[in-house]
Amino acid sequence: MFSKACEYGIRAAVYVTLQSLEERRVSFNEIAKEIDSPIAFTAKILQQLTRNNIIHSVKGPTGGFEIEREDMDMVKLSMIVKAIDGDKIYTGCGLGLKECNAQKPCPLHDKFLDIRTDLRNMLESTSLFELATGLEVGLTYLKR
């Protein structure tokens, strides 16, 4: 459903949020290791997240990546998906066809509309804080 980059982006943002709750900045090497992502790929993803003001990069010897506490509630998963994958998850064909719309629908078109609506609602209502606090108490897991 999500691209590999988007999956890693969500995991990276959640990890940064979890560490920021403990008042820690984390390096991209640490993030790559914790989310099981190649270092160069992780660097690109973190750059996209930083450029889109989802996480913050602090330079210097005590630098690293962080997210402010007040931003943790404001950043929703939909923002991460848009920053990395754009809006195609809401508009693309469920079968991957180039031309699929209400006038020329694929066999899944109408059924996929409900799935897209539910997905959009979930992504727009789920915050990084919610996911990170689920990890903190052991209700969810970040690694495979």
UniProtKB/TrEMBL annotation:
InterPro entries: Tscrpt_reg_Rrf2, WH-like_DNA-bd_sf, WH_DNA-bd_sf. PROSITE patterns: HTH_RRF2_2. Pfam families: Rrf2 (PF02082). GO terms for cellular component: cytosol. One of its GO terms (molecular function) is DNA-binding transcription factor activity. This is Rrf2 family transcriptional regulator. It comes from Flagellimonas lutimaris. The lineage of its organism: Bacteria, Pseudomonadati, Bacteroidota, Flavobacteriia, Flavobacteriales.
